[in-house]
Write a structure and sequence with these properties.
758 residues; alpha+beta; 2 domains; 4-stranded antiparallel β-sheet; 22 strands; disordered N terminus; disordered C terminus; DNA-binding
Length: 758
DNA sequence: ATACCGCATGGAC
DNA sequence: AGTCCATGCGGTA
């Protein structure tokens, strides 16, 4: 087959050079001039008139795939549907209990669903961008179980653009894909340019600017994807083996699960999610995520339709209970959906000076842009103050796998005063699907928050969020910080600041309302729950019914609640809707109540258990574990007798003794060697190197520790048993030593313990 | 001396 | 046993 330019970029004359994409087409060499389904490279299959007609009428598979495998019957009407190829992918939906349903049946169920509530028409297409895309609507043809692409003129977006990459594995590429993908590249660039222009229309919008920056901005490093699977191989699926065709051809359109049912936005049918946590998220992500730009670059479709196989480890699943929660703004009835993607407790190295944060692999591959180069792509995120950060999302090849991480997070970490043990970086996907219907992706954005508890977009695109620190209760310092943030978050054109607490004056009534809504939640009246963002913030706060016990740690008073926040959320705010409520409830309850409980208990109990690293276990008395979280630690005076300072003093005394012994030993050794050989220095180094200890190790161990390298974990009874220099082969010991030495060094610096006069 | 980079290592699961 | 990931650590700027 000859190369063919994409349908959107081709000129009338270019049509004559292309041929029908359908391999089964009896008139293979017939000129083609109508677009068909979307290919993996982003282009559209060019079909001859006859094949295109068959495709548009939903008869393509009936005609050409009769003998192919993958035919199944609609669970409701029994109609045969081909589930084994991409052509018919939009024609059916997966059923929770297994099997498929044709669109007609699926739509019927949606329209009569107990929680079905079409979005207010006035909010469809309300954005300037949306208006530009009104001619790009999809004409679902239920009678033929297919969708009819709109008549396109010039660059445009079609339904198949909304497919993620996961639904395209089944399709065979033409043999001339290299040249074809070259066209695709141009098309993709063109699309990016188009999107960039469109986005810039609303460039004062955070969300849009994020998208623009990420995908089409001048600094965008996203490699142009010529072939989705070639440039971004299915990282997970390669290991997991083939999937059933029906699952591969996941008919994602603009899926959303807001209330456990198929959502219907305007004329648009959104795909039902299955009940796996990841797919749960996945479907939310696809809720507007499948723009032409993002569909190739974002990992929103990695076989998430295989329950149990690709679930994010519970440890990383968001503990925020507001999964898929629909927030409604009472005054204007706009709706937003908040979907936390994952969260991670910052490790020591994450919060350290390296400025890198390791990302859970599956989370990265599921939720972040696909990257094929180790350089990765820039990722623009917003923090709780609305401040924009750009990290580099990269990976290393590690043990035949990949290790994903964010680079350049130091300023953000420092800005947030985060440290090991804090819950960090929940990704929240703000989707405006119910507001903007099928064009939700226009306002799609990915936000990093240190813990996004709530987020909302009203017509002014304002955000609400909170974050969780290692110590659940906020110290006065943090409280002040939040207040400061609140003030600094007032945007010029935004009437209200981003607020963690209800504004003054409204607090009482707001909290009262919130309390009543809490009760509503408790009663299970979830589907009707509408929250203003202030009320939403109320849920973030501890329940007014709870009386904290005040504990004092290092002079700082903390509020400690008997019921930890996850109890709160998991019991009160499982916003499960509709028929899948029980399943979801069970799932979420299990997650939140068990996992979150374990984790939160660790967080609540003590900073000691905030580090995941095995070297800092409960009961560890190293300086890292002893010290209080940054920001909550008071300044330590010279005569401070707190545990931390006592430890530091004790360690220091030990070190001084050790230093004396070392110096004495060195002098003796030197004298001894000088007696044996005049070239003592060279030979000593040689000897050290031969023994497997590098010169660096030698320096590290042989030289007396400087103040900055003070080993606060030095244990004389152990260390003196193995006099330096240590062999490099004692990896474990060395690792421990360096680890704690490094940590304690930074801890030492952080604590500002001044022993200069001692 | 320090920061950065990227691969290596090893404990946990 | 394989994978993940926190951290080590050597090389380089």
């Amino acid at each position: 087959m000859l190369p063919f330019p994409s349908s959107s970029s081709m000129t009338p004359s270019s049509y004559s050079a292309r041929f029908c994409f359908n391999r089964e087409c009896p008139d293979f060499n017939r000129e083609c001039y109508r677009p068909g389904w979307r290919l993996r490279n982003g282009d559209f299959a060019d079909l001859c008139n006859r094949c295109a007609s068959a495709y548009e009428q939903g008869r393509f598979c009936d005609i050409f795939h009769q003998r192919a495998s993958g035919w199944r019957c609609c669970e409701s009407c029994g109609k045969r549907i081909h589930c084994g190829c991409i052509v018919s992918a939009p024609a059916f939906m997966l059923v929770d209990a297994g099997g498929i349903e044709c669109l007609t049946c699926a739509r019927k169920k949606v329209s009569v669903g107990p929680n079905f509530r079409p979005p207010p028409p006035s909010f469809l297409f309300q954005s300037p961008i949306s208006e530009k895309f009104q001619d790009l609507s999809i004409d679902w043809n239920s009678s033929t179980r297919s969708y009819r692409p709109p008549n396109l003129s010039g660059p445009s977006i079609r339904q198949s653009d909304l497919h993620n990459r996961g639904d395209c594995y089944e399709f065979n590429q033409p043999t001339s894909k290299d040249k074809a993908t070259a066209y695709s590249t141009e098309k993709h660039r063109g699309m990016n340019d188009l999107m960039g222009k469109l986005m810039s229309v609303n460039s004062n919008n955070h969300t849009n600017s994020i998208l623009y920056n990420q995908k089409a901005g001048p600094n965008c490093k996203v490699p142009t994807c010529q072939n989705v699977n070639a440039a971004y191989p299915p990282l997970i699926s390669l290991k997991e083996g083939p999937l059933v065709g029906a699952q591969r051809a996941f008919p994602v359109t603009t899926p959303v699960e807001t209330n456990g049912h198929l959502g219907l936005g305007g004329r648009y049918l959104w795909h039902k999610a299955n009940s796996s946590p990841l797919s749960h998220l996945h479907n939310d992500l696809n809720n507007g995520a499948d723009s032409p730009l993002e569909s190739k670059n974002w990992n929103f479709g990695i076989h998430l339709d295989t329950p149990g196989k690709y679930q994010v480890v519970p440890r990383y699943s968001p503990k925020v209970p507001y999964k898929n929660q629909v927030l409604q703004n009472l005054p204007n009835e706009s709706v937003s959906v908040v979907t936390p993607l994952f969260e991670k407790i910052l490790s020591v190295s994450d919060a350290g000076r390296v400025g890198r944060m390791v990302l859970p692999k599956k989370c990265a591959e599921a939720f972040l842009p696909q990257i094929s180069q180790t350089d990765g792509v820039p990722l623009t995120v917003h923090d709780s103050t609305g401040k924009e950060w750009t990290f580099q999302f990269r990976f290393w090849v590690n043990n035949n796998s990949r290790m994903y991480f964010l680079e350049g997070i130091t300023p953000c970490i420092q800005s947030m005063q985060l440290q090991a043990g804090d819950t960090g970086m929940s990704l929240v996907f703000l989707c405006h699907c119910l507001v903007l219907g099928p064009y939700a992706w226009e306002l799609k954005s990915i936000h990093f928050f240190f813990l996004v508890i709530f987020s909302r977009v009203d017509p002014e695109k304002k955000l609400i969020m909170g974050f969780r620190k290692a110590s659940v209760a906020q110290s006065s310092v943090q409280e002040t910080e939040l207040n400061n943030n609140r003030e600094s978050c007032t945007n010029g054109d935004q009437a209200e600041p981003i607020d963690i607490h209800p504004p003054n004056g409204k607090k009482k009534s707001s909290m009262t309302t919130t309390r009543s809504k809490r009760q509503k939640v408790e009663k299970g009246e979830l589907s009707a729950l509408k929250l203003t963002w202030e009320e939403a913030q109320g849920f973030i706060l501890p329940s007014p019914n709870l009386t904290p016990s005040i504990i004092t740690i290092e002079g700082i008073e903390f509020e400690e609640y008997e019921v930890h926040p996850y109890d709160y959320f998991s019991t009160n705010l499982h916003l499960c809707f509709g028929s899948t409520c029980s399943a979801n409830k069970g799932l979420l309850a299990e997650q939140d109540d068990e996992e979150a409980k374990d984790e939160a208990e660790g967080l609540l109990m003590s900073p000691k258990s905030t580090s995941k690293h095995p070297r800092h276990r409960n009961g560890c008395t190293c300086i890292v574990c002893l010290q209080s979280p940054s920001g909550s630690s008071p300044k330590h005076g010279r005569r401070c007798s707190c545990t931390v300072c006592d430890t530091v003093r004790r360690r220091r005394e030990t070190l001084l003794q050790r230093k004396k012994k070392q110096q004495q030993s060195e002098i003796e050794n030197k004298a001894h060697k000088e007696m044996e050989s005049p070239n003592s220095d060279e030979e000593r180094h040689q000897s050290v190197n031969n023994s497997g200890t590098t010169s660096k190790d030698y320096e590290r161990h042989a030289s007396p520790p400087s103040k900055a390298q003070i080993d606060l974990n030095f244990q004389p009874e152990k260390d003196e048993e193995s006099p330096l220099p240590r062999s490099k082969t004692t990896t474990k010991d060395k690792s421990l030593h360096h680890d704690e030495a490094r940590s304690s060094s930074s801890a030492h610096n952080k604590l500002h313990v001044d022993f200069a006069d001692s």
